[in-house]
Amino acid sequence: MAVSTLKEIVDRAFAEKYGVPAINVVNDLTMEAVLAGAVEARSPVIVQTSVKTVKSIGSDVLFAMWSAMTAGIDVPVALHLDHCPDRDVITECLERGWNSVLFDASTLPVEENQRQTIEVVRQARTFGAHVEGEIESITGVEDGVGSDTEAARQSLAVSLRFLEATGVDVFAPAIGNAHGVYKREPVLDFQRVSDLVAAHPIPIALHGGSGMTDAQFTDLIARGCAKVNISTALKITYMKSNLSFLTDAQARDKWDPPSLFAKVRTDIVNLTRGLAEQFGSAGKA
Q1: Which pLDDT belongs to residue 188?
Q2: Hey, what domains does the chain have and what are their CATH numbers?
Q3: DSSP assignment of 121-149
């Protein structure tokens, strides 16, 4: 229990065919609420930080928050650096104590991406940490990383060469998914997940999860998507919860910050618990 590793968490989920919520937090309140929601659901959870959050709060402060909030926690949790193209930030987070990183070199030619990913995997291993790999950009911009232009998908053969050469622990393929809010139901390449897993059994990370249907989640998790990234849904819940409370506070001319924090916390806890139930990870801790 307690602070675990990305590999331990997703390997079990992959074997037992459930998905683990991997939720991007933006501050101390959301980090604590996500952890509390996981405890309530008796679910493992992966707490993710974007490069933007690392730079705005600071890696020392973020890791101090994490250490304090996970002391004595009795469900498996891991701290993960999401979509990071910056090797210096990866080094900084690994040195501070992050459990895993997503090295996002998807804008580079596959050969260079592969070369650098091998280096990142080797580096991470010296810290007992794990690596998520990616060779295609997931459509959409998230916290300043990414592009709204859909990237070309690599062949199965190219993907397999990357996996075998790098030894990454989790793989994030593009399957028609996108970061941000879907304006229409996405058309997803379910078979690509099955083909990858059949050829090279590895936990798949599903990005752009906010807004997918229950049926899509269920299908993709059954095919091997053991890590389900949630960022936009957290941000929307956080912002709308604040907005709702503050609109009411203004109407009543009553201003009580602790009550605001409690309201937002409750909504984030409920979001986390609901995701664990939806993905099948509730009760797995």
Answers
A1: 87
A2: 6-279 (3.20.20.70)
A3: HHHHHHTT-EEEEESSPPBEEETTEEESS
